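Running log. JK asked me to keep both predictions on one page so they can be read side by side. First protein, sequence followed by its tokens:
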Amino acid sequence: MKVLFIGGTGTISGAITRKVAARGDELYLLNRGNRSEGMPDNVRQIRCDIGDEKAAAAALKGLRFDVVCDFIGFVPEQVERDYRLFAGRTRQYMYISSASAYHKPLKDYRINEGTSLANPYWEYSRNKIACEEYLMKMYREKGFPVTIVRPSHTYSERSVPVGVHGDNGSFQVLKRMLEGKPVIIPGDGTSLWTITYNEDFADGFLGLMGNPHAIGEAFQITNDESLTWNQIYGIVADCLGVELKAYHVASEFLAAVGPYDFTGSLIGDKANTVVFDNRKLKAAVPGFCPAIRAEEGLRRTVEYVMAHEECRKEDKAFDAWCDRVIAALEQAKEAVR
């Protein structure tokens, strides 16, 4: 197939790029070229800022594709631009939405593609919903061949998936574990969550590319495995060879004391127990079966992060914030005893 990825070098898209290139498709990446290191040699680069629609139209002149996928579209204006650029020029347009768009507060912990979309807690999710609504409108009214894909907490070897972290990613949580400090886990740590290694996600995504059953449809791509946050943090501590010192804090409290957007990322997403029903994806992509369990994926990730300095970004502000939150709650305990 002749394929265009808008983006193509991120946590989700990087794994897909490598697999598409490995199977020999004619793959183009349209991006600014800032993260091209490590990309396969047979990938063709179109260096362009997709936000400059005139420049993008010029760079794409005369090109047609079997599949176009936008990995970096977050607001409706961006997918409206994509429609103008690619209507009549691709057999399939794939849009990366988000499972965080599913209804919050939860109506049912079991999630499938028929679950309603509504998230009053997170603007990010509301924008994804608006993007989906526009694209499906174009499918219904104009025949635009759209496929919606909804990932949930997909991770790679470069960053350990945790529930509470600061602006520099998750490494500071690992550093606290290594230093014997308590780490904040949202709620009581018993809500169920799903983490998906990006290579597994890529396998499901490839099965939807060029798939006639995927046109006009939405699919979630996640692992089938559900773990508590206590289990996830426990596995990370085991991989580091240290004892987990869990400090449980209510998500509402974390959201109230900021400065991080835990209203969106926790109350609107990770604090909710969710179990994904992937039967629709498996019907469209026979044989899809995530192969990388949490223990294996987290082990790979912890080992990679600890071996690569560029992945170990310290976050002193977040570290100090954790200490203040814990100290305040310990003082509150003393005050009411």
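And the second, directly underneath as requested:
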Amino acid sequence: MSDLLYSEEEEALRSAVRGLLADRCDAATVLARAEAPAADGPHDRELWKALTDGMGLAGLLVPEGLGGQGATHREAAVVLEELGRAVAPVPYLTSAVVATETLLACAGSEAGEASELLAALAAGRTVGALAVGLAVAPGAPFPGVRHEAGALHGELTGIADAAGADVLLVPADGGLFAVHTAQDGVTVTAQTSLDLTRPLATVTFDAAAARELTRDADAAVRRGLRAGAALLTSEQLGVAEWCLTETVRYTKERHQFNRPVGSFQALKHRLAQLWLEVVNTRAAARNAADAFATDSADADVAAALAQAYAGSVTVHAAEEALQLHGGIGMTWEHPVHLYLKRAKADSIAYGTAGRHREALAGLVDLQAP
């Protein structure tokens, strides 16, 4: 049986990432980025450079032979926990996890387009995004575009972090193609997004040049979305932990009737229930990350189970933080609204809880004797 406790190396990684984020990604910085003009881009490029160039985190899931760190999903999960705690406006989940896993399904040991892109993503000098809507669950049908004479035509909507991506992985006519966003024929239009730290966009292709990565887009996209759903739980855990920690701290400091409001029994019960839900989310997140790290036969079950549970818990944690701060989260200056929006957006990312419960039921039926 796997040990789901954090190893010394994982705790050291957590400490390093948390320290960096404390210096470069406080709530005021995140809010300023969310309010920045569109021309400045949706991501904090300096923070992304520190995470990638300085710490090599973009290549954790990429084998050393392809230019990465050769680490596992457990280490990537630790990074995502900390990024979730800071609602960091960086494309780690979409580029270093989903796009990377999608490319790993296309890449072999030999040099090729997919391998070259993996090396670029691992170095952090290129940001990738899978051109499949953020709400699409693993194994669910997804729209593509037309491929004619080496060029792509059509439109895709709800693509997370497309506005900050250098290359898109685009499904078309059963294949998967790489398209650079700076070229002619590619138009990325920002959509109105609830979570401004992970914005959505519509991507239009008008005879955009593309290079084929694989003829089996279904398998590649499914691998990317599976990893995204599994490790999204760790990001949700980070969001929920911040909400719980900050709410407990606030209720200790806030006084009413000459007593800390946290001493009232009704609030104690609410916070105790929230603590229990967060602890359970941690167990689900660690199990999912470990299942993918060890290539377990139960990886699909672990991912579906984690997502069936974590979405509602994270939203509940953010809503409780808002309520127990006395509604202060409705003012733009307080960071609670950033966490509530991320929690709400994450609750439908890579499939809703209901969609994952359906998948879990089907997986359990398949494994039944």
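Observation for JK regarding the second prediction: Residues 217-253 form the longest helix (37 residues).
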